[in-house]
Write a structure and sequence with these properties.
Layout (H helix, E strand, L loop, with lengths): L33 H15 L6 E5 L14 E4 L5 H11 L4 E7 H7 L1 H10 L4 E6 L34 H8 L3 E6 L3 H13 L4 E6 L12 H4 L11 H10 L6 E5 L15 H6 L5
Parallel strand pairs: 1-2, 1-3, 3-4, 4-6, 5-6
Antiparallel strand pairs: 5-7
Helix pairs in contact: 1-6, 3-4, 4-5, 5-8
Length: 283
């Protein structure tokens, strides 16, 4: 756990992006989409109004997982693929904290894929932001679970031939309570999306298309092909799934807002260890 020394703003004062900007300079490649995600998150945290010491940013391993160091919030930089179990445990132990998890497509959908499924299913009240560049950026450009089947690279000449993972559809099927897709270079709209995700109860998932300028420079063309304001938000899980699977993969917006009760919000006494133990007392 890292605690940053930047002075925290007084909760009674209006917060700004600068209140969540640490003195550590990002070491991402120039032009990386993750810069936009960082700024969007900082804007969102300022709008949400919780002071930095009431916010925790949890990550795993990868380029995007460096993000906690670039904020003044508490940060936990964990091991590869394990950000969600760490965030889940933290939120259940300290429900008073605002917990946000960040990572990349390799970290979240490959080694962390099983944790992703069960985080959606459990529906703990936290937000997961995945910066998807469809490549392993930190480890020199290998295909990730979201890489196109025919993407040619040194690591996979001619492509993998494997159908890519559909994060939004899988999140819906597994039970996520809020599902959205944003674009890293649309900073203000993405910040607003993150605010909505954090405020929505239960597990909120935001996939962010975040171009990798180094290994996938062609992704910078996304800013021309992104389809904005075409998504119709629904509370119908089947309708949202159909929209995701049948629609354009570059559409951004909030696809689904559900009404599942968040894990941990059960009636008082539910899961009480002493009451459960009492049932097994003989005599």
């Amino acid at each position: 756990m890292t605690v940053h020394e930047t002075p925290h703003a007084c909760p009674s004062q209006a917060l700004t992006l600068k209140d969540f900007k640490s003195s550590v300079e990002p070491i991402w490649c120039s032009g990386c989409g993750d810069f936009g995600v960082l700024q969007s998150l900082q804007r969102a945290l300022a709008e949400l109004g919780r002071p930095p010491h009431e916010v925790v940013v949890v990550s795993g391993i990868g380029c995007s997982s460096r993000l906690p160091a670039y904020t003044t919030a508490y940060g936990f930089h964990g091991v590869h693929g394990r950000a969600l179990p760490a965030a889940t445990g933290l939120k259940l132990a300290r429900p008073d904290l605002q917990v946000i998890t960040v990572g990349g497509d390799g970290d979240g959908y490959s080694i962390g894929g099983n944790h992703f499924l069960h985080a959606c299913r459990r529906n703990v009240d936290l937000t997961y932001i995945v910066m998807d560049n469809r490549v392993y950026g930190m480890t020199k450009g290998q295909p990730s679970p979201t890489t196109e089947a025919d993407w040619d690279s040194d690591a996979a000449p001619g492509g993998t031939g494997v159908k890519p993972f559909s994060p939004l559809a899988i999140a819906l099927a597994a039970g996520a309570n809020f599902v959205a897709r944003g674009f890293a270079l649309d900073v203000k709209p993405l910040a607003s999306m993150i605010v909505e995700a954090v405020r929505h109860p239960g597990f909120s998932f935001v996939e962010v298309l975040s171009p990798c300028i180094t290994f996938r420079p062609e992704e910078m063309e996304w800013k021309k092909t992104i389809e904005r304001n075409v998504v119709e938000t629904t509370s119908d899980r089947a309708a949202a799934t159909a929209a995701i699977l049948g629609g354009a993969e570059m559409a951004t917006g909030i696809f689904f807002k559900g009404d599942r009760g968040a894990y941990g919000a059960a009636p008082k006494g539910h899961g009480d260890a002493e009451k459960i133990a009492a049932k097994f007392v003989v005599g």
